[in-house]
């Protein structure tokens, strides 16, 4: 079942899955209609390609939806690195495995984080608005070179590692990271912090690259902002709910944060109106993977996971909760 948009990989759908299975496109216009058709035209579905756009019509894959899927469903190939719209526990109870598309999003999301970092560090968001308003550089104080600052990366997966490589090109003064486990393949110019607290204390700029799970929701809050350097900068291209937004706003008001670059929000597409008032905050409308190359790579990688399962293999992108 193709559940959600295929924009770039139409030919690949047929070439990769066509010889292995009947391809059925989910065209239900509402959640109720989808539920009714699960045991009609969608009966016998074995694998599901899922894109977040399907939520516009049938909602997220919460426990209610997952519990209603046909018994034949064994794999959900999600298009996206983040999979917080899928109730993984409900899938595990049903014996349904879930894959995502890490790697395919690395360049697009890391480039977005790099832009937000440079904009926040150099005050480019403020400067652009002043230029458009005819104010030139009035009131702008000299900023900092990235090479004078230390970067902290929370979560050194594919996106975090790609950002580290980009920033090493400046080079930034020092690059640190914290992850649940220390990577064995990092170059010598990236240093591991054994605790989150250590990372926060060392970072002039903190960039977030962790998935949204129950244990990461609100991971950066009042306590964490208090442990950061006075005047630090926060970059978030992960998920909005990883940050306690109210605590972040207080940190911006107090000057504990001197600037921020944000691409993700707790209640997308809505943006907290208070954030719009901060001249020192660069805002983007979740642009991380808005490139043709990233989106096609994501589609193909999701399809590849399904093809691997259908041919008896173990898809390489099985999400960590199953490992």
Describe this structure in words.
The chain is of the alpha/beta class and 323 residues long. The protein contains twelve helices and eleven strands. The strands form two sheets. The chain has a seven-stranded parallel sheet with strand order 7-6-5-8-9-10-11, sandwiched between helices. Strands 1-2-3-4 form a four-stranded parallel sheet, sandwiched between helices. The protein is elongated and about 65 Å long.
Helical content stands at: 25-40%
The radius of gyration computed from the alpha-carbon positions, rounded to a whole number of angstroms, is: 21 Å
- Beta-strand percentage range: 5-15%
Q: Enumerate the strands of the largest sheet in spatial order, edge to edge or round the barrel.
A: 7-6-5-8-9-10-11
Low-confidence stretches: none
- The number of strands is 11
Structural class by SSE content: alpha/beta
Report the mean per-residue pLDDT as an integer: 96
**Gross geometry:** elongated
Q: What kind of oligomer do you see?
A: single chain
N-to-C SSE series? EHHEHHEHEHHEHEEHEHEHEEH
Largest sheet: 7 strands, parallel
Number of helices: 12
What is the terminal-to-terminal distance? 25 Å
């Amino acid at each position: 079942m193709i559940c959600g948009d295929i924009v770039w990989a139409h030919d690949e759908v047929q070439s990769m899955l066509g010889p292995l299975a009947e391809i059925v496109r989910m065209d239900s216009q509402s959640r109720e209609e989808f539920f009714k058709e699960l045991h009609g035209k969608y009966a016998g579905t074995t694998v599901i390609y899922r894109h977040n756009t399907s939520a516009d019509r049938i909602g997220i894959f919460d426990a209610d939806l997952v519990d209603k899927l046909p018994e034949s469903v064994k794999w959900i190939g999600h298009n996206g690195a983040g999979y917080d719209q899928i109730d993984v526990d409900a899938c595990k109870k049903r014996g349904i495995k879930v894959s995502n598309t890490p790697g395919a999003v690395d360049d697009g999301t890391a480039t977005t984080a790099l832009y937000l970092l440079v904009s926040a560090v150099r005050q480019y968001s403020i400067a652009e608005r002043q230029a458009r308003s005819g104010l030139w550089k009035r009131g702008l104080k000299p900023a900092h070179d990235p090479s004078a600052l230390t970067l902290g990366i929370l979560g050194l997966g594919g996106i975090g590692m790609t950002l580290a490589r980009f920033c090493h090109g400046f080079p930034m003064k020092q690059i640190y990271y914290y992850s649940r486990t220390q990577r064995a393949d990092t170059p010598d110019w990236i240093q591991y912090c054994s605790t989150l607290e250590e990372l926060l204390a060392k970072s002039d700029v903190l960039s977030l690259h962790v998935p949204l799970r129950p244990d990461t929701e609100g991971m950066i809050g009042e306590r964490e902002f208090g442990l950061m350097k006075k005047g630090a900068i926060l970059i978030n291209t992960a998920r909005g709910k990883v940050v306690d937004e109210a605590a972040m706003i207080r940190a911006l008001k107090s000057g504990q944060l001197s600037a921020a670059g944000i691409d993700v929000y707790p209640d997308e597409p809505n943006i907290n109106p208070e954030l719009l008032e901060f001249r020192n905050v660069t805002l983007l409308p979740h642009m991380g993977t808005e490139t043709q190359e990233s989106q096609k790579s994501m589609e193909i990688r999701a399809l590849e996971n399904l093809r691997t399962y259908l041919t008896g293999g173990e898809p390489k992108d099985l999400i960590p909760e199953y490992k």
